[in-house]
Design a protein that fits this description.
This protein is mainly beta. Helix content is 12%, strand content 57%. It comes from Roseibium marinum.
Length: 115
């Protein structure tokens, strides 16, 4: 019985570890708008797509721990662009912003927890 309770408690705790976040962003010239989502909390994966049909995906991780307030990730796009991005984590741990360079142009994004 104790084992069953432990399994149920562990399952309940782990189910809360996967959080989904909306991502929106634009390039510096404002001609390309990205939307998508990320799944994870301290680490996870994401997918975004632009109004120009460019699709990118990748992984992210908070650096050290959430208290440091930032993280980084890597992305790869269908058009061959790839790179690293950095992001800030707001103190509420539910939103933030970041930046990357895609095709030599700066791309800024924000993210927030989906309700």
């Amino acid at each position: 019985m104790r084992f069953l309770v432990l399994v149920l408690v562990t399952s309940f705790a782990l189910s809360g570890c996967k959080n989904q976040y909306e991502i929106t962003g634009t390039n510096a010239s404002g001609t390309e708008i990205f939307k998508g989502s990320a799944l994870g909390f301290q680490a996870g994966k994401f997918n975004i797509e632009s109004n120009k049909n460019r699709k990118c995906n990748g992984r992210f991780d908070s650096v050290n721990d959430l208290a440091s307030g930032y993280g980084k990730g890597d992305f790869k796009c269908t058009d061959g662009n790839e790179g690293t991005f950095w992001f800030n984590i707001e103190k509420n741990y539910k939103s933030g912003n970041g930046a990357a360079y895609i095709g030599g142009e700066k791309f800024k994004f924000i993210y927030g927890k989906q309700t």
